[in-house]
Prior knowledge:
This protein has a single domain, classed as Rossmann fold. It has a 5-stranded mixed beta barrel with strand order 4-8-7-5-9. It has helices at residues 19-22, 38-51, 87-94, 122-129, 139-149, 167-189; strands at 2-4, 13-16, 31-33, 58-66, 74-82, 102-103, 110-114, 134-136, 153-161. It has 6 helices and 9 strands. The longest helix is centred in the last third of the chain and has 23 residues, at 167-189. The chain has 194 residues and is of the alpha/beta class. The mean pLDDT is 90.
Amino acid sequence: MELIGEITTGRPLLVLAVKEEAQHLDTDLPVLLTGMGKVNAATALATALARGPRPSEVVNLGTAGALRPGWTGTHLIGTVVQHDFDGQLLAALTGETYGAPLTLAGGGEAVLATGDAFIADEASRERLAARAALVDMEGYALASAAALAGVPLRMVKHVSDDAGEGAGRSWRESVAECARALAEWAQANTPYRS
């Protein structure tokens, strides 16, 4: 976890997983780099929010793999699901609901599947495409932490790869371009400078 700048009341907090995704940001807004994966994302954001002060909102910027053909560009996420969490089995065992889909207020129509596995094979891609259009490794955890803290969240993902064979190579090759697109979105859609 790395926090660049100070969180202040009334201003957004930008949250990204890794420095590669943040490389083109030029802002005086605070930037939290969480590290990859659900545990890193949840603990980093929960820690930052618990220390206070509270930001006006959390804006998650990041890359995502496309699970369906034709998905490119930048997308505002409306719903996040966990693809590596068996909520149905846990409900059958305990009678409690865990890991239900989360709807983001003011989000778009895109559904994002989050899990700790980097999706780089066709079988996984096809299985996930039935539930979501995009996939990442942090979104659900960030949405959960923000909701528990009562802080609004906007989630913006730029497609970096096709989440199939060769996705890891594609991500490395495209992350700088994705970071530029995410920085442009942030500049146009957040109070970027004071």
